[in-house]
Specification:
With about 400 residues, the protein is α/β, with parallel strands linked by helices. It has two domains: about 10-205 and about 330-390, Crotonobetainyl-coa:carnitine coa-transferase, domain 1 (Rossmann fold); about 235-315, formyl-coa transferase, domain 3. About 40% of the residues lie in helices and about 15% in strands. It is built from 19 helices and twelve strands. The strands form three sheets. The chain has a six-stranded parallel beta sheet, with helices on both faces. It has a three-stranded antiparallel beta sheet with strand order 7-8-9, with helices on one face.
Length: about 400
């Protein structure tokens, strides 16, 4: 089997929670040799730093394909060990509050002294500088501050969070992209650099056209519920046995859609003659469409409307999503053989490389400190020294 594209890259993972681990997962899944560095365990502790069970679905999905060591970075010996590891690493990733890495002396400038080629990746809630840099930040705070909750949900119902930690996930994906850009640039310059993003920047980036709508037209978007804010008709419509999504904006799709519904009265209606009129009369238009769609089943309309070349699909619960024949064909649910949990499945990569396909089986998330001996032995430490470090609470 072909080597994965990042198999030559060594990564030190200082991340916890979700944004940072999302970035590191992108590197680990594509072959990077990742060492996850965690605090030595508290006596009797059964949770990780983000508060979830290590054998729970979330931790297992976030931290596969890694090695794991424990290291007390606050101790002199622990810090020295980290610097030895950093000297041989290509990438370090952290998502501390912006000031913490400086207190621990594991910031970019400190690491750069021992490894000028290091690519140092950071995520913070609100950035690495500025008036809010040291504030604690989590996904929901970024969703609210970044404008997303003001445009999510039905009009008049108040702000609504998105059902996934979208600021965490997108900031993690963007940091992974930044790290790969920096690695590519290093091939040319032979120099490392610090790359960083934040939850708030990622959230504003994800506003996309709603942000440019304000920046260029001065329009403040409002909640539109299940209706697309600018492309009409696009939204959720009732059927005789549930609901479906339909996207029939634009004149060509609109004409095909009316044909699929066998509804010339919709096409000929004076309130529907142009996209602008359909937007102005959205509520009445949606009601007229709904009167037609609720006469037949979801399966009937999905087949008929897609046959006409108009996007239409079911509104699945997550179990039904993974039961979709197309989803099963794509194989995004990946298997792992875990030594304690047995055969489990996690969410795989949505990226497909023809020359370097993902392995059918991923490596399980390591236990806390599972690779202490192997990693420290690689630094030239004897079993006696490793034992002393453990007794002293360094590992």
């Amino acid at each position: 089997m072909a080597k994965l594209p990042l198999s030559h890259i060594k990564v030190l993972d200082l991340t916890a929670h979700r944004a940072g681990p999302t970035a590191v997962r992108q590197l680990a899944d594509w072959g990077a040799q990742v060492i996850k560095i965690e605090q030595p365990p508290e006596p009797g502790s059964t949770t990780d730093a983000m508060g979830g069970a290590r054998h729970g679905f979330d931790f297992q999905n976030l931290h596969r394909n890694k090695q794991a060591i424990t290291l007390n970075l606050k101790s002199k010996e622990g810090h020295a060990i980290f610097m030895k590891l950093a000297k041989k690493a290509d990438v370090i990733v952290e998502n501390y509050r912006s000031d913490v890495k400086y207190r621990l002396k594991v910031d970019y400038k400190s690491v750069k002294k021992v490894n000028p080629k290091i690519i140092y990746g950071s995520i913070a809630g609100f950035g690495q500088s500025g008036p809010d840099a040291a504030r604690p930040g989590v996904d929901q705070i970024a969703q609210g501050m970044g404008g997303l909750m003001s445009i999510t949900g039905e009009p008049g119902r108040g702000p609504m969070r998105v059902g996934i930690p979208i600021a965490d996930l997108t900031s993690g994906l963007l940091l992974a992209q930044a790290i790969i850009l920096a690695l590519y640039n290093r091939e040319r310059t032979k120099k490392g650099q610090w790359v960083h993003t934040s939850l708030i920047e990622a959230q504003i980036f994800m506003l996309d056209f709603q942000a440019s709508r304000w920046l260029m037209k001065g329009e403040v978007a409002k909640q539109a519920g299940n209706d697309h804010p600018t492309s009409i008709p696009t939204g959720v419509f009732p059927t005789s046995d549930g609901h479906i999504n339909i996207a029939a904006s634009g004149n060509n799709l609109w004409k095909r859609f009316c044909g699929a519904l066998a509804a010339p009265q919709l096409l000929d209606h004076p309130e529907h003659a142009t996209p602008q009129l359909r937007s102005q009369n959205r509520k009445a238009l949606n009601e007229r469409i709904s009167e037609l769609t609720k006469t037949k089943t979801s399966d009937h309309w999905i087949a008929a409307i897609n046959k006409a070349g108009v996007p239409c699909g079911p509104i699945n619960t997550i179990d039904k999503t993974f039961a979709e024949p197309q989803v099963q064909h794509l194989g995004i649910a990946r298997g792992i053989k875990h030594p304690m949990l047995g055969e489990i499945k996690v969410v795989g990569q949505p990226i497909n490389l023809s020359a370097s396909p993902q392995p059918k089986k991923l490596k399980p998330t390591p236990e806390l400190g599972q690779h202490n001996k192997a990693v420290l032995k690689g630094l030239g430490m004897s079993p006696k020294k490793i034992k002393e470090l453990r007794a002293g609470g360094v590992i």
